[in-house]
Amino acid sequence: MSGSEIIDYAILIPLFPFLAFPVILFLGRIFNGTPTWVKNVKEGGIIALTVMGASLIMALLVIKEHMNKVGAADVFTWFESSWWESSGEITTKVFGFGIYIDHLTVMLLFVAAFLCFLINIFSIGYMNTDSINDNRNHRFYAEFVLFCSGMLGMVLADSFLWLFIFWELMGLCSYLLIGFYYERPSAAYAAKKAFLTTRVGDVFLVIGLVMLWNMFDGHLDYAYVFDPENIARVDQGELQIALGMMFIGAVGKSAQFPLHVWLPDAMEGPTPVSALIHAATMVNAGLYIVARMFPFFMEAEIGALSTLAIVIAIIGGITAVMAALIAFVQMDLKKVLAYSTMSQLAYIFTGLGSALWLANNGYDDIAAFAMGASLFHLFNHAMAKGMLFMASGSVIHEIHHAHHEVAHHGHDDHDGDHHDDHHDDHHDDHFDAQSMENMGGLASRLPITATAMFVGSMSIIGIPLIGGFWSKEGIIASAWKVALKEPIFFLPATLILIGAGMTGFYMSRMWFMTFAGKPKTEVAEHVHEQTPWIPIPLVVLTFMTLGAIVFAGMHAGHWLGDFESGHYTSFFDGIGYEMSHVFLNPDLFLLILTYVAIGLSLVIGPTFAMALYGGSLDEGQKAKPWMQWAINLSARVNNKSKFDNTAWANSSLADSLHKRLHFDEIYDAAIMKIVVGFANLSAIFDSKFIDGFIKTIESTSQEASRRLRALTTGSARDYIMMTALGTLVIFLLLWGVT
Amino acid sequence: MLPAACDGPGMNCVEVFSTDFWQAFAPEAILIIGLLLLFIIPNLGNSKFRIPLTKTHVPWFFGGKRVKATGSPALPGMLATATLFTALGMMVIESIDGKMDTTTVVSGGIIIIKMDNFSRFFEILFLAAVLLASMASLDRIPAHTFHGKKSLEEMYDNRRQADFYILMLTTAIGMCIVALAQDLFVLFVGLELASLATYVLVGFHKETKSGAESGVKYFIVGSVASGVGLYGLSLLYLEFGTLQLTEIAANWVDSSILGTIALGLVLVGFGFKVSAAPFHFAAPDAYAGANSPVAGVLATASKAMGMIGLIRVLLIIALPESGAQESAIWLYALGTLSVITMTWGNVAALGSTNPKRMLAYSSVAHAGYMLAALTAVGAWKWGEVEAPSDYAEAIVAAVLFHLFVLVAFKLGAFLVLGLLEMEGGASRLSALSGLARRDPLIGTAMFIFMLALAGVPPLAGFVSKFLVVAGIVSNSVGELWVTTESVSFSDIHWVWWLALAMFINSAISVFYYLRIGVVMFLDVPEEGRRKPLPYGASIRMAIWICLVATVLLGLSGDTLIRMCYRAAESLNLA
Q: For a disulfide at B499, which of A238, A719, B334, B472, Cβ 3.0-4.6 Å?
């Protein structure tokens, strides 16, 4: 790498936000509440936006330069240490940070930098109009930029060690942000839960990393561990265990079964923003670490790591269906999206599992395709889910404003945004601004939001030609391709195929409940869009999602997966290829599969949802033309089918779904029995033995200190005495030698 | 006439006061000029000199009614700071790229001083410390322009301006001489020059009881130590007939009784300077009585000066020849001293409730760490080692690095206390209560200094401690890793245990360093200290410089470490 390349400055991408963290925090402390700080700097929001913008520009420059090649740079050496090895050579260990760039980095870098920037814009609209946030938004922005620097740093890092460091940095920020309203017990509890649950995964991740470190002679940098020679050298069984441990860490971070319980609760954070972090960026960290393992699977002995790949796919399959099931009954808008996130991430895990299995079994070309499809789905999902969460935040925000207007109508005159209170502030009644039971018919009242949600939902469902469709088809096809080779893969393959239909149902349900039909409450009639900061990211992301076809045309799916020689083809060729490949696949099996998947997700799922929750808008209200047809259709389907689901709704299945399949209860019970019991024992041990021991040390050393200091009498005579004594001791010791 | 030592290749010998001499000596010359200006400028006046027996008055400009422009009380501080800054800048520019020429200054056939990487390194250290302290003193002992009422304290402050900075510059010059000296006599002169100035600086606030008392005590005990050291030097002269470092080193034999006694006595003299136990007693009193920037200079620069003495005497003179099988004669003495020192310092600091005394004890402990490192150098002849000087240089470089970064965080901590002193005393732990709430930036800075002192990564304190421990360990193990399959404890030289002692002591020390953090972040500010801290632009700037150095040198100390290595190399240990 020559010195002038832009990659040498790539460190700036995480560095900008990292440095902004103390700046915002301290400036916030100093200028808190002053008019300039609140009005012009948006309590730090503008500073954050500036650094995130700078990071985004840097990221785009890096991406532009390294679109088609792998690059690495040593940016920073902390210190070096040399020592003698038994071979007689001096080994030098460099403790430093470097940048490693390949397709995976480029893609995630874009996702992270781009979304963080948009979220930042959105936050300014959302957070700064929230009265209970008064005088503490600087804390939010500070934590936000620190989080972003964690994500960006993790993506750019050149070794698993730094990946882990940034991973933990994100974990910390996640904790802080979920617990942003720490005065609410539920938020504090959710923060703790998220932190501790991911901690379970992290312990395994550390074990995995230590094992890797041990196997690869103290190296964790990608350049070394991905070297085929080194991979061939290590014990494959041990490698599989180490990677499995790391996978458990990924399961925790990406909220997969059975460590998924924290994600829905994480929605306690400031509504769309922390939620978005937990949907579009941070949860991708788990996927990233699994995707990073790809070279291991490529280079390891054929079949040596298959078990792990199968486990990854099965965990993905189970989570996909489980989360979709729970999402069926959720009434909270954000919780539906949270479960949808889990489900979609599970898709990606299944895709990655397939890719890894293929890679490990020598099917390099389709492995690359499966990998590319998974990563492309990651991209599509991040864009769509980011948009969905921001849109849901917009809905909640406006519902709350409307609720305030309705509730306080005629009571007092409030001046615009400033005295509005949010869903977070339940002081007057128990109105739940997040519940879809209080919404309905919003399509005409929140046109931009509704559009964004519409497009986002379609992308998640996998409506042909929109966003997630391209990648989801790829994942399902890959999983089935593996299933033909390895029978046990039928399980995840079937599960995600069913999951596709389920996605169609719950996403449509969410949209129709929120935007179609008649307003269910008085509040919903008074909703309208206000602040300009919120729609900007929605519009941008809407076009991003719709534009997925462009990326598909550019062979993103293939390019992302091919770590060796990925390249673009020309756009129209690519689009023609993708189209024919998807819709007119020469392989009959895949062709049928495609249409089954499309049928499930496009027809069956949404139809059920329409039948249950569809309905036309109020008289005189009209949605934008691109949504009106869906509403009309839903109204018609709803009228035709007199489908009654009360039996279902009262069934025990629905009940346990409401209770999130009892996971929390089981975990709670297990923890109360085992952990608390153990904790009580340790507490006794601690207070009796450890504390006793420590306290003895403490009191003894304090006593020793007192006596020693008593020797410092303050009299110069005594000091000279001691000097003489010391001289004597020195002589004795010198004499002893001679 | 040039001495024999000048014959070697690459030796650049110049006669004193020759043109070449002034070129090499320019930074120090600037200090001396600055000192003279400090004498002259504040005293410029309208006085006339009457030629005896006549009535002719010749204007003489020195004394009398002072010229208003030059009589400003703020001037000496500015002048001293500017002088120090200029000299420091010249030295840094000269030596930072490692292409510095070694210049040996001779006079009458003996080598007086030598400008090389080693001496320049220490001079930079001294000047940096004194410069920071001077900057801080601009606010700590401020020059007042009277508006209305004059308080006694303000008048005192103004009176003292010139005196204070003259003493500061004298200290700096004395220390520089110690760094340059190639002759034990010159070294002693420099040492005393600096010491006498610091004695006065400690007792500078003579109207306060503690200031006067501690100054006198420091002077008495210091004089005793100097006397003992001087006696040691005279014995050396008796034995070798010369005080030239190179010549004594060439003639040194361990079996010489007189030499051994002299070594012990000199060890006491320098032991006081580095405040090694049990010669450290005056130090806590002195630090507590002195004003904080001065205490900071004592804890960093003055200590480094003593360390130069120890390095010169122990490593240059009394180290066995290369290839000899035995260890240095002073190995046990210094090893014992180091363990006692570090333990004593840390244990005493544990219960200390006066932050300045606490820092004093902590600096005793740090002296112990450095003595441990020097001890390990003494062990390097032991066993079969291929390139012993590599090991020795690594350790010496670690010590130098440690000394240098101490200027960043120990002086920084003292400066924070100096800032607190501006609003009252800083002699109780409760003075720091709630500092982080009253002034988050200063509180955080202090906390970072404490973390650095405790050796928490990635700060400079960690790197220095790491280098020292790594140096000791690698030296004690030597090349056993190369020659044998498995290394057992019995094969390892006992200096290894010094590293362990250091490790345990570091663990102890964390307690009292972090206690400062607890007090600053969790406690409620005491009565009368609720207002924001006084604003002092230059003392705050000095604190920032220290803070930035603490963090940066920890993150990326390459340049400095290389400088340390070059300095260690120029000692020519092997």
A: B472
CA distances to A14, A17, A99 from A9, in Å? 10, 14, 9
Structural domain contains residue B5: no
Give B 197-236 residues with CB within 8 A of chain A: 216-217, 220-221, 224-225, 228
Which residue in the set A722, A733, A738 is minimally distant from B336, CB to CB? A733
Task: Say if residues A12 and A105 touch (Cβ distance below 8 Å).
Answer: no
Give the helix/strand (H/E) hosting A723.
helix A716-737
Question: Is cis: bond before B278, omega within 30 of 0?
Answer: yes
Residues of chain A in contact with residue B368, where contact means CB-CB under 8 angstroms, are none
Instruction: Tell me the mean pLDDT in the region A124-136.
Output: 69
Cα-based torsion angle of the residue sequence A459, A463, A465, A471 in order, rounded to the nearest 10 degrees: 60
Dist. CA A341–CA B284, nearest whole Å: 63
pLDDT attached to residue B218: 92
Cβ separation of A733 and B332 shorter than 8 Å? Answer: yes
Task: Tell me the per-residue pLDDT of B516-539, one tens digit each, with 9 for 90 and over.
Answer: 999 999 888 888 787 888 888 899
Continuous segment of H or E residues that includes residue B412: helix B388-421
In a domain, residue B550? The reply is yes
Tell me whether residues A705 and B352 touch, CB distance under 8 A: yes
Position B165 confidence tier, pLDDT thresholds 50, 70, 90:
very high
**Cα separation values, A28 from A34, A44, A138, A274, A607, Å:** 10, 7, 5, 20, 51
Calculate mean pLDDT across residues A30-57. Answer: 79
For residue A414, what pLDDT band results from cuts at 50, 70 and 90?
very low
CA dihedral A330, A331, A333, A334 (to 10 degrees): -50
How far is B346 from B356, CA to CA, in rounded Å?
A: 14
What is the domain count for chain B?
A: 1
Interface contact flag, B470 A723, Cβ < 8 Å: no
Least confident of A19-28, A571-580, B553-562: A571-580
Dump pLDDT digits (tens) for B360-408: 999 999 999 999 999 988 886 555 566 667 788 889 999 999 999 999 9
Note whether residue B332 is domain-resident. yes
- Partnered with residue A74 across adjacent β-strands are A98
Of B559, B573, B552, nearest in space to B458 by CA: B552
Nearest CA in chain A to B437: A29
Contacts of A92 in chain B (CB under 8 A): none
Q: Which long-range contacts (CB under 8 A, 24 or more apart) does A54-57 make?
A: A54/A12, A54/A16, A55/A12, A55/A13, A55/A14, A55/A16, A55/A17, A55/A113, A55/A116, A55/A117, A55/A148, A55/A152, A56/A113, A56/A114, A56/A116, A56/A117
Question: What is the DSSP code string of B126-139?
Answer: HHHHHHHHHHHHHH
Report the alpha-carbon distance of residue A574 to residue A555 in Å, rounded: 6
Determine the structural domain holding residue B384 and report its residue range. 326-574
pLDDT above 50 for A480 = yes
Q: What mean pLDDT comes out for the span B21-45?
A: 90
Mutation for A interface: B235, B265, B279, B492, most A CBs within 10 A: B279
- Contact call for A705 and B220, based on CB within 8 A: no
Mean pLDDT of chain B: 87
Quote the percentage of chain A above a pLDDT of 90: 1
> Does residue B103 surpass a pLDDT of 60?
yes
DSSP A607-630: HHHHHHH-----TT----HHHHHH
Residue B307 located in a structural domain: no
Give the separation between CA A383 and CA A376, rounded to whole angstroms.
11
* Least reliable range by pLDDT among A125-129, A505-509, B401-405, B462-466: A125-129
Whole-number percent of chain B with pLDDT over 90: 45
- d(CA B92, CA A163) in angstroms, rounded, equals 38
